[in-house]
């Protein structure tokens, strides 16, 4: 697993929240960002492993990297 840190301009921590809240907050945060900026999303809901890639594919955002450990899922998204 790649543990390299991806440079990001924004952080959204949705720890403790469950579907659909992390995706709803992600959508709102991306609306506030500029094209090309990178967001680090931190989540604890295992459903995000399915939802975040589908969200990116549907809205054409770039999922730069994703990592997980025992407690957190991390996603780096580049705004389209």
From TrEMBL:
Residues 12-36 form the UPF0033 domain. PROSITE patterns: UPF0033. SUPFAM superfamilies: SirA-like. InterPro entries: TusA-like, TusA-like_sf. Belongs to the sulfur carrier protein TusA family. This is Sulfurtransferase TusD. It comes from Marinospirillum insulare.
